[in-house]
Amino acid sequence: MSAMRLFVPRDAAALSMGADAVADAIANEAAERGLDIEIVRNGSRGLLWLEPLVEVQTDAGRVAYGPVAAEDVPALFDAGWLDGGEHSSRVGEISTHAYFAGQTRVTFARVGVIDPVNVDDYEAHGGFAGLRKALDMDAETIVRAVTESGLRGRGGAAFPTGIKWRTVLDTPAARKHIVCNADEGDSGTFSDRMLMEGDPLALIEGMVIAGLATGATEGWIYLRSEYPNARRILADALANARAAGWLGDDIGGSGKRFDIRLRIGAGAYICGEETSLLNSLEGRRGEVRSKPPLPAVAGLFGEPTVINNVITLASVPAILADGAAAYEALGVDRSRGTLPLQLAGNIRHGGLLEVSFGISLREVLEDFGGGTASGRPIRAVQVGGPLGAYLTEAQLDVAIDYEAFAALGAMLGHGGIVVFDDTVDMAEQARHAMAFCAIESCGKCTPCRIGSVRGVEVIDRLRAGDASQEPLLRDLCQTMTHGSLCAMGGLTPLPVLSALNHFREDFSP
Questions:
Q1: Residues 241, 119 contacting (CB under 8 angstroms)
Q2: Which of 304, 309, 266 lies closest to 285, judged by CA?
Q3: Residue 263: how many CB atoms within 10 A of its CB?
Q4: Is the peptide bond before 493 cis (omega within 30 degrees of 0)?
Q5: Which partner for 230 in 91, 151, 196, 405 could form a disulfide, CB atoms 3.0-4.6 Å apart?
Q6: Is the pLDDT of residue 339 over 70?
């Protein structure tokens, strides 16, 4: 008789809630009872308010219990949880949970389901199917498939992925690179981390496909230093993929070469900007480069370079495996496929959900998020990180769509959503945006370096009652928007002006 399998997440959110202690308690309790069990450390399903969420493999499927504390474990065994027994923490079969009802899981289809670093488990759940197809295609065909899928960069700018890959493919060079921007630093964002901790082989597969599509043979993952758990999991996944022949000099027995190196950042927010990231990878100061040339033409070490973020690259395997048309069929207008959204801030059900483009922001916050954790009305929602615009309650019916957000003077960015109730001081939030820019600016251009410092001072004078400072603040924001070298200074005015325009009363004493 095979051992009973229990799944305990090793995702950072679950670990912060005591998942390791729960795993130890389960192992000890089973040993005392003479029970043969196997504990699989999986990724998180995304229902973060239920972490640690433990799933038990029963004859009727995987039954979830959560949140589970170490002291709950003896009672769970007494309740017969190995057979799906009733208990106050019993959630039931997780894929039928209401939180999953409106989701379309493509990129996150395996997250929470498999052992993240087990190559056999990955393949058993469809892994490497896209890469196998790519190995039988020429580079031109792969790039065409990604282009036709409508995939756009999931890191913020939403640039069409196929066009970027085409540029690198068409640029002759002795050596080319695939760089994964895993420096996820925006407030309220954690989808990159969850993917790397829950299904890192999908990222690896996507990077290999990108290499085949562009003629690159070297890959680099630039990981933020604040993700030590992801670092350990990625290192194991890379080693296992290499041992299984999916990285190295003979990918899948094809005779084609591609390998990946893991590099750790040093905690600078600006290194999420692609050219600053390249400087850091080269061992130089992390500051913005002037463009042109674009990285696709002269990037890492002056050679053609694809730079995509984690979710973009991890979306590629499904496009190759299922076909471009299947991915393009999801979404609306120019926003195709799916987007992992992350709910944070004052929200009852914080976590991650993956949905097709087109759903409204209100549906996301109410149907999935359950409204505010405080039970008070929503006053403002910031989407797209610390430099994203603040939306009012009246704007929540906007569709999750790149162009729909742009029409409101906002951006979807990385899909991070932070919710505020009616007790928030929006003038303080605007000041925080300027102060954040002042701290994180690389200092290369004057509008960002000096403008952000002056912005804090002007907001303070405005809040103190000097109404004459408002035109000055607006002029300063215009200078930063149009004069900054990169999006750090160029986007800082978005949260400031949206707060000023929609919540002017908060700027008066």
A1: yes
A2: 266
A3: 14
A4: no
A5: 196
A6: yes
